[in-house]
Design a protein that fits this description.
It is a single chain. Helix content is about 10%, strand content about 45%. It has helices spanning about 5-10, 100, 110, 320-330, and strands at about 15-20, 35-40, 40-45, 50-55, 65-70, 75-80, 85-90, 115-120, 130-135, 140, 145-155, 160-170, 185-195, 200-205, 210-215, 225-230, 235-245, 255-265, 270-275, 280-285, 285-290, 295-305. Strands 4, 11, 12, 13, 14, 16, 17, 18, 21 and 22 form a ten-stranded antiparallel sheet that branches. Strand 6 (about 75-80) and strand 7 form a beta hairpin. About 45% of the residues are buried.
């Protein structure tokens, strides 16, 4: 039995979502309105279920913790609501739901009580399990008609959050030729289950896109050493381990040792590619009929470990983390 299962014994596992729009004091009449003190600012926020806007709107700074988030007792993840759409992890010291109290940015009193925190500086990388595009270099999902994020569903034991790019012009070299450029709708759903630290990621595009990829960043993002690709009988495992400052404020925060993992099932795993900052795998789509429309779909899984943040981490070294990921990948399909 795993450490996580032992720690969760005797309590009811749960998941939760967190999605906050930054408003003004006049929004105090809205249900759920609260005042949040974070990042050196006082924010008047209210909960939302969905939001969409055009690419010229600074959606990143109009949302508290900069995008929709989901958590189990073991881990939390947020999706940046901008061209990056990067997955950023928040690690728990002890198994509990925290975002309803910390709002992703725990204050000193919460930290003293044993709350977790952000553990990874993702910068411009793939982070862990973000969907990007590769065409000789890594591209964010930038040239879009509209960006959307929403909470798809939330139950006690499972929740799904999503990001969608409407009319994304694929940066394949044909953007300036109206007859050749490819414009697609890209949707990614992330599902988290209670008692788990991993998420399943379902990718759907209105037509196949060669160059869609996912993976793990090196740690630190300027080029970590412990980053590997493993070809398994049932798919491809990408793994990373390293130590870095979690945020740019190196005076207040200590360095964190973090493990990242992504598993792509065999039928969706394409060629491997990497640069100094990222270890990536192309996603091969399968053509399916979804709600009477043909679309290209793929899925994969992501996970994370905070070796210095967690009281009982599943791994304390790169070797232990890579062994853990092999066992984890065998259980997936």
């Amino acid at each position: 039995m795993s450490v996580a299962v032992l720690l969760l014994a005797g309590c009811a596992p749960r998941v939760a979502t967190s999605f906050w729009k930054i408003g003004t004091p006049e929004d105090s009449i809205l249900p759920g309105y609260t005042v949040i003190h974070a990042e050196g600012k006082t924010r008047h926020c209210y909960p939302i279920e969905a939001w969409s806007d055009g690419p010229k709107v600074d959606t990143y700074h109009q949302l508290h913790h900069h995008g929709v988030a989901v958590e189990s007792e073991l881990m939390a993840y947020r999706i940046y609501f901008d061209k990056k759409q990067t997955i950023d992890p928040y690690c728990k010291r002890k198994p509990q739901l925290e975002l309803a109290q910390s709002y992703w940015y725990p204050n000193d009193s919460l930290l003293a009580e044993g709350y977790g925190d952000d553990i990874l500086r993702v910068s411009g990388t793939v982070g862990v399990g973000s969907v990007k595009y590769w065409n000789g270099k890594l591209y964010h999902i930038e040239d879009v008609g509209e960006r959307q994020q929403w909470i798809v569903k939330k139950r006690r034991n499972k929740a799904t959050i999503a990001v969608c790019d409407v009319d994304w012009t694929v940066p394949d070299g044909n953007q300036d030729d109206p007859e050749k450029r490819k414009v697609v709708d890209l949707n990614v759903e992330y599902t988290m289950r209670a008692g788990h630290r991993d998420m399943r990621c379902d990718v759907k595009a209105s037509e196949p896109v060669e160059g869609l990829c996912t993976g793990v960043q090196t740690i630190p993002a300027k080029g970590g050493k412990d980053t590997i690709s493993i070809i398994l009988p049932n798919g491809v495992l990408l793994a990373s381990w390293g130590t870095d400052w979690p945020v740019n404020d190196s005076a207040k925060y200590a360095k964190e040792t973090v493990g990242l993992g992504v598993f792509i099932p065999k039928e969706y795993a394409g060629k491997l590619v990497h640069n100094k900052q990222n270890n990536l795998c192309f996603l091969k789509s399968q053509i399916t009929n979804h709600k009477s429309q043909m679309c290209a779909t793929a899925h994969f899984y992501l996970t994370c470990c905070g070796a210095t943040k967690e009281n009982h981490p599943v791994a304390s070294s790169a070797e232990e983390w890579f062994a853990y990921l092999r066992r984890w990948a065998k259980s997936l399909k």
